[in-house]
Amino acid sequence: MTEYYFMNGEYTEAGKAVIPVRTHAFMYGTSVFEGIRAYWNDEDKQLYAFRAPEHYERIQKSARIMHMESPYTTEEYCEITKKLLKKNNYKEDAYLRPTLYKKTQRVGPGLQDNEDGFLIIANKMGHYIDVPEGLKVCVSSWRRNSDNAIPPRAKVAGGYANAALIKADAHYAGYDDAIVLDEQGYVTEGSAMNLFLIQDGKLITTTKTDNILVGVTRNTVIEIARDILGIETEERQVSRTELYISDEAFYCGTGAQILPVTSIDNRKTGSGKIGEITKELQKIYFDVVRGKVPKYKKWCLGV
Ligand SMILES: Cc1ncc(COP(=O)(O)O)c(C=O)c1O
Do the Cβ atoms of 136 and 175 come closer than 8 Å? Predict the structure, then answer.
């Protein structure tokens, strides 16, 4: 079946959505993007895009940092998203990658006098990393790019060279992923997902100013933990050795969803098995994203 993308104002067959090789974003990594999941609910026979407005709010913030003009409002982005998903007629989970990019074909890194383009890539997608026994991760020898270098708060393609090095070296060292420290040695997040620790029944995660991408899923976890499980989240700076003494740990992100971590730097996290609170949150999360929890149906954009 033909798959469609949205590119520069039109719904285009995937194979025809191409960019010239001299496109600025391709040469310099000057695009900002989002990852949005759409979940199929088989009982409702309905596809739901999860927290689409929040992702489009964030792309507009990334755009401001990168001297880009957003071509649409949040409501318009959501309408385009619905139409694109409808056109693709997905009856299973899918993934969207909206991208705002510098499209002028010229040499030189400047963002000024540089036209903006917008596209959305769409594809079917199941789990991103599927490790049923939990992830074995290490602390990366790479540091997270700082707010004064390539701001992690902005989801800029060029910044993902950092994630690529972290991910690749973790893989070659035999780990599933790596946790990244900042230049001061404090914990930030995983290669491309946020991190939560659980100590004494409480959730702990790094703050919005700790050189992380401020995740939509991070916010979802904080809300469902508080409202459904009655567990508060402490947002604060996290030291490296806290990684080794926590009772549970998990990653979260649109792609990652909720991924339990069961060992860090060859030290078991808690018992070394997936923790009970992590399991509960994972279960609730999958119900929430499929529109099965009435309180959070507001986060599910019906297509
Ligand atoms: C660096 C980084 N941190 C965190 C996240 C999680 O963000 P979100 O939950 O909004 O997908 C992502 C995923 O997109 C990411 O790339």
Answer: yes
Catalytic-labelled residue, pool 102, 103, 136, 155: 155
Cβ neighbours of 283 (radius 10 Å) = 11
Instruction: From residue 29, give the alpha-carbon distance in Å to each of 67, 95, 164, 184, 261.
Output: 14, 21, 13, 26, 31
DSSP 129: S
Distance 215 CA to ligand 1 centre (A): 5
What single letter denotes the amino acid at residue 103?
K
Alpha-carbon distance of 21 to 25, in angstroms, equals 10
Predicted TM-score (pTM) of the model is 0.97
d(CA 176, CA 183): 23
Q: For residue 28, which phi and psi values (nearest 5 degrees)?
A: -125, 5
Nearest in space to 157 (alpha carbons), one of 32, 23, 7 = 32
The burial class, CB within 10 Å (0-12 / 13-18 / 19+), for 5 is buried
pLDDT tens figures, 174-212: 999 999 999 999 999 999 999 999 999 999 999 999 999
Set out the domains of the chain in order of their start, with CATH numbers.
4-124 (3.30.470.10), 135-289 (3.20.10.10)
Task: Name residues contacting ligand 1 (CB within 6 A).
Answer: 35, 189, 192-194, 213, 215-218, 253-255
Give, using CA atoms, the residue closest to atom 2 of ligand 1: 192
